[in-house]
Design brief:
Helices cover 42% and strands 10% of the residues. It has ten helices and five strands. The termini are far apart.
C-alpha cells in the first residue's frame, strides 16, 4: 500500500504545467529526457530560463502580429501613449522603455537605439516640451504626456525649420544621431525662450527669458548628443540660424593661452 502511494506521489511530481511543457518542447526534450533534465536543474534555474524564453518571444513579435496586445507578457499593464498628437492604447510589459515601445510597438523607428544607457543621445525625444532620453524612460510613466518624436516635427508635410537648417548646413553625415540631435535642438529653442540656465551660464541670479545663446552655450547645452561623424560645427551653425538668424559660418582659430587657462580652471 505504501509503495502504491509513493508511486502515485512520484507520478504527480512528474506532471508538468503548461508553461513548463512549452519550455521543454522548445528545448527539444522528450518525455524520458525531461525527467532526467528536471532532476539536474533547480526550479530557480528553470524560472530564469522561462523568463528569457517568454521575454524574447514578446520582443521578437512584429507590430503587425501585435496590433493591440502582446500575446505573452510577464508584467502586463495598459497605457495610453499620446505620440505626435495621436493616442495609441497599448498593453505592454511594465518594464518596457519608451524607446522600445516607440520602435517595437508603434513602428516609429526614427528614434534610434544607440548605447541604450543614456550616454549618446540618439534616442532623445520631446516629452511635454522637454527633451528626454527614451531609453531611460519607462513607457508606463508617460501616460497622459505629450510625446514628440522626429516623425512629429514636420507639419502637414512641411519640414520643421530646424530640419531645413540641418539639411542646408549639412548637419549630419551617417544620420544615425540626427533624430536625437533634431529633437534636442527643437527643445533647446524653447529652453532659450524660457530662460533656463546651463552649466556655462555666467550669472545664475539674473536670467531673463528669450536668451540669445552664444556658441559656447549651444555646444554645452547640446553636449549630451554625440555625433561620431564629427558634424558638430555644422549642427551648431544650423541651430544658430534658426535661433538667431545668423547663417554666417564662423571662422575657427586656435585657442589663446588665456582661453586655455580659463578652460582648465573651469
Amino acid at each position: 500500500m505504501k509503495k502504491a502511494n509513493k508511486s502515485q506521489q512520484e507520478q504527480k511530481s512528474d506532471e508538468l504545467t503548461t508553461d513548463e511543457n512549452i519550455i521543454l518542447d522548445a528545448m527539444g526534450l522528450t518525455a524520458s529526457s525531461r525527467r532526467k533534465f528536471l532532476r539536474q536543474v533547480s526550479t530557480g534555474s528553470l524560472g530564469i530560463y522561462a523568463s528569457s524564453f517568454f521575454s524574447s518571444e514578446v520582443f521578437a513579435q512584429t507590430v503587425q502580429e501585435l496590433p493591440e496586445q502582446a500575446k505573452i507578457l510577464l508584467n502586463e499593464i495598459k497605457v495610453n501613449l499620446r505620440v505626435n498628437s495621436m493616442v495609441k492604447p497599448l498593453a505592454i510589459d511594465s518594464r518596457m522603455s519608451l524607446l522600445d515601445a516607440l520602435r517595437e510597438r508603434l513602428a516609429l523607428t526614427g528614434t534610434k537605439k544607440g548605447c541604450d544607457h543614456g550616454q549618446c543621445g540618439a534616442c532623445t525625444v520631446i516629452i511635454d516640451g522637454k527633451r528626454k532620453l527614451s531609453c531611460l524612460t519607462l513607457a508606463a510613466t508617460c501616460e497622459g504626456k505629450e510625446i514628440t518624436t522626429v516623425e512629429g516635427l514636420a507639419t502637414n508635410g512641411e519640414m520643421h525649420d530646424m530640419q531645413k537648417a540641418f539639411v542646408k548646413h549639412d548637419g549630419f553625415q551617417c544620420g544615425y544621431c540626427t533624430p536625437g540631435q533634431l529633437c534636442s535642438s527643437v527643445a533647446l529653442l524653447q529652453e532659450a525662450k524660457n530662460g533656463e540656465a546651463s552649466y556655462v551660464t555666467e550669472d545664475l541670479k539674473n536670467i531673463k527669458s528669450g536668451l540669445q545663446l552664444s556658441e559656447e552655450e549651444i555646444r554645452e547645452r547640446m553636449s549630451g548628443n554625440i555625433c561620431r561623424c564629427g558634424a558638430y560645427n555644422n549642427i551648431v551653425q544650423a541651430f544658430k540660424e534658426v535661433h538667431s538668424g545668423d547663417d554666417v559660418m564662423p571662422t575657427w582659430e586656435f585657442a589663446t593661452e588665456e582661453q586655455m587657462k580659463k578652460a582648465k580652471n573651469g
